[in-house]
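Researcher: Next entry in the queue.
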Amino acid sequence: RDRKEAKSAAKERKKSAREAVRQRNIAVQERAQGAEGGSKRRRRTGGSGGEQADDPERFRAQREACRVVERILESRPATISGADAIREADVLLSKMTQGTQTREQMANGAALWGYTKHKFVSRAMLCFDALRRCRCREPTAGSVYEDIWRHLGELGGGSRCLSVGGGPGNDLFGVDLLLRICVKPGKVEEQSDGRIRDDGGGGAVFPDHGTGAAGEDMPRMVCVDFAAESWEPIFTRMTAVLAERGGDAARWECLSADLTRPLGSEDNRHLSAHSDLDVAIFSYILTETRGKWENLVVELITMPRSRPRLFLFAEPTPWMLFRLIELVRDATGNAFEKERDYCWLDSSFGTGDAEQNVNARQGPAVL
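Model: Structure for this entry, 367 residues:
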């Protein structure tokens, strides 16, 4: 009887936690729908002042991401129509969700251009929004949020940001936006009402050098992907667009690597060469490699390091990230504590264990 009562109580707790998440998600959806409606109204009326006033940093970041991807897409080959690109991208995204994509499928140029149109801005803003949450926490001595924000602030010309499976460079671009706008904002012109002044011409909004609080250089940005050769034309176009806007194309690089192979293999020579990293981003790549990622990712996290490193993981649902936490705990033999060694930077941010331990999020799970 005692076991039955305990089991029943556990079920009730889980049910209550799920209901709390459901109610929270409903509230988030309602706010998002309201924001979307406001965005549509602003587009119809040509206004954007309210959005700027509400969150000028995010407005600036998303505006810049949209401008950059528009310029990238101008170089789409004339032989690939917009409709073909979207159709092929839908097929590829379905394969990636199932973890069944192949090199041959990734060599489909139309699919990659469509993917860039579909995902570049949203994936860039995913990294931007997740990491920016660390600054929003109340500063607490020794907190993981404070450590993350300090680490980002210390990134400079000798630092290295790595995106594993980062395709066209969208994840790195999101981190780059965060560094320019929030971490090292530099000289930002504001109007008397606090809104960021819109230059209106899409010029050199974010030059690389001399704009930070102390004129810091920006970190090197390295993307490794098993289809790097296929992504190269789009990635190169992105760096060219950034150069047009005052950036330094030389610090961006796209190299080949395979997350399903051992770190010391020939396939991962580039990843091994850049393993002494400062920031590593894994966006949806664990889902796309279906358990074959475990050895390499855990090795990267637990290998000896000369300085602190930050790993950011984003996945459609949290269950694979729960698995990652277990693997790291087993590999280190140490207590791997939430709010000290790791934290959640998704829709569950700022909630208690009951919600964060449930396998549900509004949007992607970010660890």
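Model: Strands lie at 160-164, 220-225, 252-256, 279-283, 310-315, 365-366.
Researcher: Noted, moving on.
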